[in-house]
Each structure stands twice: as C-alpha cells, then as structure tokens.
C-alpha cells in the first residue's frame, strides 16, 4: 500500500512501507517553528508509561508494530503509525498537534478525492470504449461486402429497371 507523504512546517515527514511516520522528522518540523525544544525528542516521548500502554493497544488493534526504532543507518530514528505521530505532536505542543492532525486529514481527503476522480475517469473511458466499439462494428458491417454493397446493388437493380431517359434526368444528364 502507498502511504501519503506529508509536509509539516515545510519539512517532508518520511513514511515507511508499513505506514509509520518518522517522529524525528516531526520533531525537526516542530523545533524549526519554535513549537518544541531539543529535549522533546521522540525517545523521551516513548518512555512514558501511558504512551507505552497506548502503543501496545494500537499494535494489538492493527496487528503490526505501531512503533519501530531503528538505530544507525540512513533510516535511523523512531517511527510511529499515524495515531502515534498525532499523539507525539500533542505531547510537543497543542497548536502543533492541530497542524499535524489537519495535515494528515488533508492527505487522506486528497487521496479520496483522487480516487473519486480516477473512478469517474475509468467510467468515462469504459463508456467511450464501448461507444467506439459499437461504431467500429457498424462501420465494419457497412464496408467492403457489407451493407453499403448490398444497398448499392439494390440501387443498381432499380436503375436497370428504369427507362434510360428517366435515369438521365435523375442524374442530370439531359442532352
């Protein structure tokens, strides 16, 4: 599944393949705008007994680890599901929580809007494909050896049965 990348305070918050967001990126976004300080790192947040209980409950409910901590490497840091990210934002600063919540909500709504537009476009393509296919069938019936030839043969038979002078008048070839 593709999870939306969000931008908070101009900082892109990375997301892993399991939908966990980088709490370290959120921390950097909050510090940049003065909505948190350096001592409010994700590790401190994750030490709280109440947060540990919430993490266990969320992990049980989602059947995946709701928090992952990576030590070393380019992906190092603390990663949490969306609800953990929002809880962390609330722990940092109430105004920051509101901004993060609205950012996640907007990302979801944009995804739903894009799905709706995609579904409408798919329906339009299907309808027009059917219409073109029907036109192609009609054209195929009209072409060589088809209805056009049948109608022209009937026309020729009628002309053959007519008086030659009448045919000349009909075709505008009166001498």
Largest sheet: 3 strands, antiparallel
Form type: rod-shaped
Structural class: mainly alpha
Mean pLDDT: 86
Radius of gyration: 35 Å
N-to-C series of helices and strands: EEEHHHEEHHHH
The name CATH uses for the topology of the largest domain is Mlu1-box Binding Protein, DNA-binding Domain
Our count of helices gives 7
How many strand units? 5
Which strand order spans the largest sheet, edge to edge or round the barrel?
A: 3-5-4
Number of domains: 2
In oligomeric terms, what are we looking at?
single chain
Explain what this protein looks like in three dimensions.
This protein has two domains: 102 residues, Roll (Mlu1-box Binding Protein, DNA-binding Domain); 33 residues, no CATH class. 63% of the residues lie in helices and 9% in strands. With 175 residues, the chain is mainly alpha-helical.
Q: Concise description?
A:
This protein has 175 residues and is mainly alpha-helical.
Indicate the topology.
Blueprint: E1 6-8, E2 11-13, E3 21-22, H1 23-32, H2 42-46, H3 49-62, E4 67-70, E5 77-80, H4 82-92, H5 94-142, H6 147-161, H7 164-170
Antiparallel strand pairs: 1-2, 3-5, 4-5
Helix pairs in contact: 1-4, 4-5
Features:
175 residues; mainly alpha; 5 strands; two-stranded antiparallel ribbon; 7 helices
């Amino acid at each position: 599944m593709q999870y939306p990348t969000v931008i908070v305070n101009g900082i892109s918050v990375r997301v892993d393949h399991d939908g966990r967001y980088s709490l370290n990126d959120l921390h950097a976004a909050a510090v940049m705008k003065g909505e948190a300080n350096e001592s409010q790192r994700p590790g401190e947040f994750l030490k709280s007994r109440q947060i540990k209980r919430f993490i266990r409950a969320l992990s049980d409910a989602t059947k995946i680890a709701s928090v992952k901590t990576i030590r070393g490497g380019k992906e190092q840091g603390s990663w949490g599901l969306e609800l953990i990210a929002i809880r962390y934002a609330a722990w940092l600063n109430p105004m920051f929580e509101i901004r993060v919540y609205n950012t996640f909500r907007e990302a979801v709504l944009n995804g739903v809007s894009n799905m709706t537009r995609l579904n409408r476009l798919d329906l339009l393509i299907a309808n027009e494909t059917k219409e073109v296919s029907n036109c192609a069938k009609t054209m195929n019936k009209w072409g060589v050896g088809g209805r056009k030839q049948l109608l022209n043969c009937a026309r020729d038979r009628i002309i053959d049965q007519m008086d030659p002078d009448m045919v000349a008048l009909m075709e505008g070839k009166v001498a």
